[in-house]
Amino acid sequence: MIKKDLEKWLNENKIEEKVEHPSITKFGDYAIRTGKAVENLTKNDIVEKTEFMAGFTNIWLNKSILIEETEKIGTEEWSKNLKENGIGKTMVIDYSAPNIAKPFGIGHLRSTNIGQAIYNIYQILGWKCIGDNHLGDWGTQFGKLIVAIKKWGEKAVEEMTIEDLENLYVKFHSEAEKDEKLDDEAREWFSKLENKDLEATEMWQKCIDISIKEFDKIYGLLGVRIDYALGESFYLDKMDAVVKLMEDKNIIRESEGAKIIEFKTMPPAMAIKSNGTTTYFLRDMATVKYRMETWNPDLIIYEIGADQELHCRQVFETSKMLGWTPQFYNVAHGMIRWKDGKFSTRKGQTIHLSEVIDKAMEEAKKIAPDNDEKKIKAVAIGAIKFNDLNQDPKKDIIFDWEKVMSMEGNSGPYLQYTYARCQSVLSKSQKNAGISGETKLELEEENLLREFYKFEEKIIEAAERFSPAVVAEYLINLARKYNEFYAKFRVIGEEAEEQRLFLTERTASILKLGLTLLGIETMEKM
């Protein structure tokens, strides 16, 4: 990678300041804050020139090196070098995790999209990646659902849809406000479930089967594949061992009949309630234990909502107390908000992801040609995903249909259209793409050439920052530079056709690689 070679050269010249890209292209490819002019730099093949300006030493890279590095992108050699970043390391990422017996809500979209993109980014960097969908398939809500099914269910459980289950759950809460005995019945049924009562267990399992079938449909549409789906119930027989370990380490104590873990800088975490029931926290500790013993990861990432940040900190700190010391990181994503504050929904207050996808498909029909269903789906899903991934995971995002489907702004369709434009140009030429260090380039051509080599850096930076937005922003900048070049210069039939084909082919290749990392499809025509 050029940056590593440059840093090595700077260290040889006793310069250890951070290397950055200038925000304005005309100030070079890299800049370092040196405070004063640096003299007597040793000769280096990758550097064309240096120039001191306003406290920075600006560095321009040799054009031949830029071309050489650009030609490698996407090759076997490039992939092999990229994988050296994570060779021998294992990462577990916990993402998506929708709740059983509820339709896949818009609230789980961010965890699913961001989690899958982080998985893809670490995988291309050579890490062994393990994705785990920690399904919410246990808890007192199942006692309520069983009561609702028995009292108001109008058909056999296996014939119900996920919407039927949600409606029954909502009805339970509505009726429980008028009849307190319903909550007692729900507790009794959940107790039966905990004690492996046959009827309760069968109804619970059928609810899970209905839910998984629905989730798999959504994952298929989103192009998401998660390695494991080990729900909370998987860890029920593994919690006693965690409590024993906590007792052996002397980190758990009794408080008002409950068992808790205390911390110096945050509120205590409850492992066991005063009535003897276990908590989500304890199940998560059993989850960490299982992951450590099964996969022995170097890194565990949780991709869940910002409202779970305290819970994650408690889990991470307790893990350290128990001697589990991988790197832990919580990508705490913000919420999705609508531009006008609301989303018209047929199904009540909860916004179902299927409704958002249906709306996106309607909008995509205005863009995708010939009513091609495959292309309509690719544009719709790409638009939804990119709107999410183009922004800092920690921030709330605004869902504005006009911007989401824009062919000109920071959007998925804009990138897909730029890729299709490149393919259109390439399909019309009979010549071979080619360029050399001696080739004279116009400003827009050179600006584009000087964007390509950054791709590898941006993949690594995205992993370091746990933010696919780094790759998304880079792709937008690349597409913008290509379209500026395309608007000014003809490609086919020009004297400079071969070099412009090279710029076009490299743009297309990087856009496809980058969009694939984000889980977004490309198409040859649009």
Automatic annotation (TrEMBL):
TM regions (residue ranges): none
Subunit field text: Monomer.
Keyword Phosphoprotein: no
Catalytic reaction equation(s): tRNA(Arg) + L-arginine + ATP = L-arginyl-tRNA(Arg) + AMP + diphosphate
Keywords: Aminoacyl-tRNA synthetase, ATP-binding, Cytoplasm, Ligase, Nucleotide-binding, Protein biosynthesis
Example of a GO biological process term: arginyl-tRNA aminoacylation
Signal peptide: none
InterPro entries membership: Arg-tRNA-ligase (IPR001278), Arg-tRNA-synth_N_sf (IPR036695), ArgRS_core (IPR035684), DALR_anticod-bd (IPR008909), Rossmann-like_a/b/a_fold (IPR014729), tRNAsynth_Ia_anticodon-bd (IPR009080)
Family the UniProt entry places it in: Belongs to the class-I aminoacyl-tRNA synthetase family.
Known EC number: 6.1.1.19
Chief place of localization: cytoplasm
Protein name, as recorded: Arginine--tRNA ligase
GO cellular component: a single term: cytoplasm
One of the record's GO molecular function terms: arginine-tRNA ligase activity
DALR anticodon binding domain mapped to chain residues: 415-526
Gene3D superfamilies: HUPs, Isoleucyl-tRNA Synthetase, Domain 1
Subcellular location: Cytoplasm
